[in-house]
Amino acid sequence: MSEYTVEFVGTGETIEVSEKETILSKCIEEGIAQEYSCRVGMCLACSAEIVAGDVTQPAARGLTDEEAEEYALTCMARPASDLKLDRGKYPPSIEDETGAMENEAAAADD
Ligand code: FES
């Protein structure tokens, strides 16, 4: 079983994560303040930008294939190499959803 170093840019936090565990589960175990909500790869709350390295995250259903190249859903992602992650960075689709909700709310006010 391989272990990889996961470094969170801008915070100086570093954890060792095996290829068999999710980055989020290790963050919780180590007391790292990684946000999360659904824990099933749907809500994007646990998203982080992949600055360097690779992850495996076949169950990250909330991401498009293109987004999965640049972002990790830490509740689903397992390291496939040493990593540098920028926590709290979200893929463009989450912005679209927020914008769509705002537009729906504005339409409801009319
Ligand atoms: S916690 Fe919802 S996608 Fe990870």
UniProtKB/TrEMBL annotation:
Requisite cofactors: [2Fe-2S] cluster
Domain 2Fe-2S ferredoxin-type: residue ranges: 4-91
Keywords for this protein: 2Fe-2S, Electron transport, Iron, Iron-sulfur, Metal-binding, Transport
Cross-referenced PROSITE patterns: 2FE2S_FER_2
Domain of life of the source: Archaea
Molecular functions per Gene Ontology: 2 iron, 2 sulfur cluster binding; metal ion binding
One Pfam family this sequence matches: Fer2
Region of interest called Disordered, as start-end residue ranges on this chain: 86-110
InterPro entries registered for this protein in UniProt: 2Fe-2S_ferredoxin-like_sf, 2Fe-2S_ferredoxin-type, Beta-grasp_dom_sf
Stored PANTHER family: FERREDOXIN (PTHR43112), FERREDOXIN-2, CHLOROPLASTIC (PTHR43112:SF3)
Similarity comment text for this entry: Belongs to the 2Fe2S plant-type ferredoxin family.
Protein name: 2Fe-2S iron-sulfur cluster-binding protein
